[in-house]
Amino acid sequence: MTGSLQVKNNKYYVVLNCKDGNKKRKPKWISTGLTAEKSNERRAKQKLKELLKEYEKLEAEQEHNRQSGISFIDQIHTWLEQAKMRVDEVTFQGYELTATQHIFPYFEPLKLSLADVTPQVLQEYINFKYKSGRIDGKGGLSAQSIQIHMVIIRRTLADALQKNLIQYNPADRVTLPKKERFESDFYSVAQVHNLFMALQDDPLLPIIKVTTIYGLRRSKVLGLQWRSIDFDKGTVTIRHTVTRCTKTVAKNKTKNNSSRRTYPMLPEIRAILLAAKESEAQNKRLFGEEYIENDYVFKKDNGEPYGVDAITKRFKKLLEQHHLPVIRFHDLRHSCASVLYEMGYDLKDIKEWLGHSDIKMTGNLYAHLGFRQKQDITMSFEANFSSALEKTLEKALEKNR
């Protein structure tokens, strides 16, 4: 490798004659941080020698890796195999799906070795996915989705770095799109009441009520089991979850310790659960041997557990049918916080009820609820102000008559 000292903007720069993945010359400018004056020339030349030595060593290692045949795709497969033993099953499903649908189709045609993966290569991937990376071809991926992609890529390369297969992690030198703050929607007390009234004859209402009253995640309400219901003590314990990415996973494990909690059985909840118990007994007699035995509280008439995605789709369809504001099923959890807020409960109370592990999570939601209240105050102020202004104008006109 060759290089030279150059002066730009009155600063000494080292210019290295590097090569890209296609063996084409690509000058690399590195600032020495030294002012271009005679007293700094010796130090600048020493910096040139050090950088030449460093980059010659890096090029040699990269060439070795190219010749060894270690490909970027192979390294991702290796990391996925390791991740499968370390992470939650649903988390792994997400990693595998992202790699299969996005990362592999993009990088496989490029046939890159580990040494070929530079910050520029990764930045081009990020920019492409952000602009037009959706599988359906309808635009780009969100900043949050791209961050998930980079978790896989960064950890793959971090593993390669730990094994001395690369000199540095190029994923640490890219710029990710700014993550936009997601503003969830939710129902007020009045809207929750309207929801319950509109769906009073729908089979999904018991699930919606339990979800809203206890502020549960979808995985928790679908994972509710009879072994967690104590009619004598009047308690409902959250300890089992049902989740899905590419396939449904049921487990006796909640998201965190605070997520595993016990609620008092409110009278309305007791009525819902007793009705579900009676319905289950009737369905067992009706379906006989065809009934699917399990311990879940909420399920289809034949005992089959509800599909995770089916509940979400059904909920949206019901809202549209009854001309109600369309929110996500998960927003019923936020609606619970909205109801508690309107009832006068503070941040700590809402945190405990929702089972947040970190009060910051509740604080973000609490701030959003507070903003909604400020909007109501603003609307009220504007209405009253307009009314007062009209009266003032009327009085002024009467005086001038």
From TrEMBL:
Residues 70-161 form the Core-binding (CB) domain. Residues 34-68 form a coiled coil. Keywords: Coiled coil, DNA integration, DNA recombination, DNA-binding. Residues 182-379 form the Tyr recombinase domain. GO terms for biological process: DNA integration; DNA recombination. GO terms for molecular function: DNA binding. Belongs to the 'phage' integrase family. Site-specific tyrosine recombinase, which acts by catalyzing the cutting and rejoining of the recombining DNA molecules. This is Site-specific integrase. It comes from Candidatus Ventrousia excrementavium. The lineage of its organism: Bacteria, Bacillati, Bacillota, Clostridia, Eubacteriales.
